[in-house]
Design a protein that fits this description.
With 153 residues, the protein is an alpha+beta fold. 41% of the residues lie in helices and 25% in strands. It has one domain.
């Protein structure tokens, strides 16, 4: 006999799979569902900034937690890209090599401000709510169909 606990388990499990798939597709879409990401600052660079190494996309983790699904990333710059904003950072002293002469030189430490445009790939949206609604509807229909079959027997 189907149980409400099994229904909840199936809904959360399907939400986890479906949303994870859609969030990964955002990297192929080069945008958050239908909202495209801003272009790169360097117009001569090839490819999408968000997919150069694949680390950001591969760093997305999801799990069923309580009565919901949690998405996270252990990639340090994931939140900065997803949320955007202005960040202040200290650049440590280091050495550089001149490409033309081959000579090394020292760069003193300095503070800089980075303005990161928002390039969402995970988050709440009407599309996410629609996906969740579809998952709940499909699982509820399946649950009550199975329940009706068991009662008729």
């Amino acid at each position: 006999m189907p149980t409400p606990d099994k229904l909840m388990h199936n809904i959360l499990s399907d939400m986890n799979v479906k949303l994870a798939s859609e969030f990964h597709k955002n990297f192929s879409r080069k945008g958050f569902f239908t909202k495209k990401w801003p272009d790169r600052k360097n117009t001569k660079a090839l490819g999408s900034l968000m997919t150069v190494t694949g680390v950001l996309r591969g760093g997305i983790k999801s799990r069923v937690l309580g009565n919901g699904v949690e998405f996270s990333s252990d990639v340090p710059y994931a939140a900065k890209h997803n949320e955007g904003g202005t960040y202040h950072e200290k650049v440590r002293e280091h050495t550089r090599r001149n490409k033309k002469t081959g000579k090394s030189y020292r760069v003193k430490s300095f503070n800089r401000t980075v303005i990161m445009p928002r390039r969402r790939f995970i988050g709440e949206s009407p599309e996410v709510r629609h996906i969740i609604g579809d998952v709940i509807a499909k699982n509820a229909t399946r649950y009550f169909t199975d329940l009706a079959k068991k009662i008729r027997k």
